[in-house]
């Protein structure tokens, strides 16, 4: 029946054995990206999959990959930007691959090269790798890619942001052109489009949300706050909320400073960024998942592997350099249909950064004020138009003659009031 097929994994051309696994995992309704991508991928067609963070992209390619490998020869290579994401992708594959005697190998920096060599000797048919470590293996001739017939580029935009394009292009030269290529990401910037045009065969676009679309159910707030007051405001907010908090810093040094600062506040906190060893990053992420650490401080690079349900609050202590990272950051809350909250700090001179975010998400960020902090506005400049000021509620404030006027919007019943 059409209704049944559109609301379940049946009718997606998934093999019965994998259907059983999905049922045991208690997945009953596919996400939109899974519903659209799985049948196309099982047919062996190239795909560009666009969906916001937290919508089940990994399973959308893991199911077709295992099904196709179980029916024929060859191997699959999954390229990901970060170590954490590689581990997360492997965890998803491990739910299905062993039933078909398909082994996986995770090739990431910071991990034992000797252990990876042992894994490669076991003839894994799914290789999950970060570009840098894979190139290391290629240079040492410890891996051959001539039998790769399925290539997955996961979080392709992040890999390009991290400067992996030269390594990716080198890797692609060693993979047979006669292959299936699947590219998944939450955003598709022009550089990703160029890669798709150069290395994919008539790819089918599977877009369940426009590039830059946020996950639903996220309540957003923006505080305009002077740099010197950010620490005090953070302390107030952390006391107000009781659940788990993912906090973003723009730099690694900043992440370490913020972590120390939060520890002095008496909160349980861990940090995750590229200066931490793989074991330290694993311990921080696992500790955050099980509640050992209530707060996890991360940079954008490390955050792509953070797939944790139940994060109550995302705090942008620093706004991201790239507006698209705002979507990725706040998408870590409100996962799997849950409601979440995102609070961002902007200094008075960051008007343009906020504007870029608003252009991307196609909505104004509601401005909040805390009663214990001075009223701040963005610094006026020649590029600020009167219409922009009106959209942000500045005109109403000016009409009331300064002072601490309430923003033009009001808290909904689901929002907490500041005390």
Could you please describe the fold and organization of this structure?
This protein has helices at 2-6, 16-24, 32-42, 57-70, 83-94, 113-121, 131-139, 156-161, 165-173, 190-199, 230-240, 252-264, 278-290, 300-303, 323-330, 351-361, 386-392, 394-399; strands spanning 47-50, 75-79, 104-107, 126-129, 148-154, 180-185, 204-207, 218-224, 244-248, 269-272, 295-298, 311-316, 340-346, 367-368. The protein has 419 residues and is of the alpha/beta class. It has two domains: 2-207, Rossmann fold; 218-399, P-loop containing nucleotide triphosphate hydrolases (Rossmann fold, 3-Layer(aba) Sandwich). Strand 10 (269-272), helix 13 (278-290) and strand 11 (295-298) form a beta-alpha-beta unit.
Jot down its keywords.
seven-stranded parallel sheet; alpha/beta; Rossmann fold; 419 residues; 18 helices; disordered N terminus; disordered C terminus
Q: From the coordinates shown, what is the CATH architecture of the largest domain?
A: 3-Layer(aba) Sandwich
Radius of gyration: 23 Å
Q: How is the biggest beta sheet arranged?
A: 7 strands, parallel
CATH structural class of the largest domain: Alpha Beta
CATH homologous superfamily heading of the largest domain: P-loop containing nucleotide triphosphate hydrolases
Tally of helical runs: 18
Low-confidence stretches: 1-6, 382-419
Spatial ordering of strands, largest sheet: 3-4-2-5-6-1-7
Helix fraction by DSSP (H/I, runs of at least 4): 25-40%
**Average pLDDT across residues?**
83
| Tally of domains | 2
């Amino acid at each position: 029946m059409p209704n049944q097929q559109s609301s379940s994994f049946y009718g997606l051309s998934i093999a019965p054995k994998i259907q059983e696994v999905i049922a045991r995992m208690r997945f009953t309704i596919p996400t939109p990206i899974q519903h659209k991508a799985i049948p196309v991928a099982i047919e062996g067609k190239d795909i560009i999959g666009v969906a916001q963070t937290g919508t089940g992209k990994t399973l959308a390619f893991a199911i077709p990959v295992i099904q196709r490998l179980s029916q024929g020869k060859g191997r699959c290579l999954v390229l990901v930007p970060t170590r954490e994401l590689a581990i997360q992708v492997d965890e998803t594959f491990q739910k299905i691959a062993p039933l078909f005697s398909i082994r996986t190998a995770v090739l990431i920096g910071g991990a034992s090269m000797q252990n990876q060599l042992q894994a490669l000797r076991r003839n894994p048919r799914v290789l999950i790798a970060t570009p840098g470590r894979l190139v290391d293996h290629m240079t040492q001739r410890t891996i051959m890619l001539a039998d790769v017939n399925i290539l997955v580029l996961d979080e392709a935009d992040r890999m390009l942001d991290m400067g992996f394009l030269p390594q990716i292009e080198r890797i692609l030269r060693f993979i047979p052109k006669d292959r299936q290529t699947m590219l998944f990401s939450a955003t598709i910037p022009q550089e990703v489009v160029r890669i798709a045009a150069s290395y994919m065969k008539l790819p089918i676009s599977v877009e369940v949300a426009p590039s830059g679309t946020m996950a639903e159910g996220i309540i957003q707030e923006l505080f305009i706050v002077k740099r010197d007051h950010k620490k005090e405001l953070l302390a107030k907010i952390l006391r107000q909320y009781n659940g788990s908090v993912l906090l973003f810093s723009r730099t690694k040094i900043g992440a370490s400073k913020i972590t120390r600062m939060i520890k002095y506040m008496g909160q349980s906190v861990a940090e995750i960024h590229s200066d931490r060893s793989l074991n330290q990053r694993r311990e921080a992420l696992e500790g955050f998942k099980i509640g050992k650490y209530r707060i996890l401080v991360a940079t954008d690079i490390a955050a792509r592997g953070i797939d944790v349900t139940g994060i109550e609050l995302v705090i942008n202590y620093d706004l991201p350099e790239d507006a698209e990272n705002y979507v990725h950051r706040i998408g870590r809350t409100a996962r799997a249909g849950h409601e979440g909250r995102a609070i961002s700090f902007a200094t008075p001179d960051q008007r343009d950064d906020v504007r870029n975010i608003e252009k991307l998400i196609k909505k104004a960020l509601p401005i909040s004020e805390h009663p214990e902090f001075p009223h701040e506005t963005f610094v006026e400049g020649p590029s600020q138009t009167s219409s922009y000021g009106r959209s942000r509620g500045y005109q109403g404030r000016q009409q009331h003659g300064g002072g601490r006027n309430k923003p033009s919007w009001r808290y909904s019943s689901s929002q907490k009031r500041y005390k």
